Amino acid sequence: MDLSKITLDIFTKLEQKWLSHCEGKKTRILSIDGGGTKGFIAGSALIHLEDQIQARTGDPHSRISDFFDILAGTGIGALYAAMLNADDGDGRPLFSAKDAVKFVTEKQSEMFKIKHVGIVRRRRRFSCRSIDKVLKEALKREDGTVLTLKDTCKPLLIPCYDLNSSAPFVFSRADASESPSFDFELWKVCRATSATPSLFKPFELTSVDGKTSCLAIDGGLVMNNPTAAAVTHVLHNKRDFPSVNGVEDLFVLSLGNGPLTNPSKPQLQRNGECSTPSLVDIVLDGVSETVDQMLGNAFCWNQTDYVRIQANGLMTEKVEVSMEDVLKERGVESLPFGGKRLLTESNGQRIERFVQRLVASGRSSLPPSPCKEIAVSPLVNGR
User: Fold this and answer.
1) Which position among 162, 183, 218, 292 bears the catalytic label?
2) Motif GXGXXG: which ranges (predicted)?
3) Which of 113, 220, 248, 321 could form a disulfide with 34 if both were Cys (CB 3.0 to 4.6 A apart)?
4) 3-41 pLDDT, tens per residue?
5) CATH, residue 320
6) Is 87 known to be catalytic?
7) Structure confidence by residue, pLDDT tens digits, 284-293
8) What pTM was computed for the model?
9) Is position 128 within any domain?
10) What are phi and psi of 206, to 5 degrees?
């Protein structure tokens, strides 16, 4: 008996079984920008996205993570991505989209509790203790278990900037599954990517085994739109995404949180120079829009496989904006040689069209992580 041949046959069959999960399906990516303290644009889009998924499946228990293979987020977008993806212990996400947005909205004043520092010149900062308390509350199970990067239903990707190495640092479930030296408590990951220098002190965190440390500031400074990082991660992670060979194998939804720059507000001072706050906003918006432009080009301006939902000046025109305002606003799209164009479809209609194709292709093709056992609910393998 040729044991090597038998072994080869066994592994070949296992590989074929693994790949059969993904055959004929594109890998689905959901990316959520940073921006603001509520992430209202993205929050409205997430609620509509999950409502549409439930309507098309006829299943009120369907969740966003059932239909996406990886979630990425920065700042407030990272918190949404983590809440919608955190494993409750039974292979189901801790929060629905409505519950996540409700939690963030209700806890906003506590998360971003203002304290003033300085004696002569009072400077506004937010309380680190308050936001820590809220994030700990959000990202733990009912039994009190503190979740780490490994405790997610699907792969997760969250960036920050590490002052120790003077380089971007990207937290990922893939790395956390490989080594405890890259596994961090989930609430600390969200805290790290939200540490805006002008509002919070840099946040120091250490991996669960104490071997890796990071002195983090806001991930939005380098990756406010994390879509490119998510696409690159999927293209190079053959363990979790064995069937992906190029962008033609991807299906991407990128959610913006509105531009920081206000077109109705002068960005130049009387002396003709650009103010520092305006310059920072321009840089952050520019980075996000550059990512959108590059991805549009990578996807050959395919409006079906790559969809970007972004506000078209809505937040600058109204003091109070409702979810209906966000969904009714006409969508915008980057043009091949720069600039934007106004679409005939609204943001809500674009999400609905995306969900139609999303649900038609079935639930997420990604099997549970091979690095841990997950109790799979019958809902996951339903329709």
Assistant:
1) 218
2) 34-39
3) 220
4) 666 666 666 555 545 544 444 589 999 999 998 777 889
5) 3.40.1090.10
6) no
7) 788 888 999 9
8) 0.85
9) no
10) -130, 145
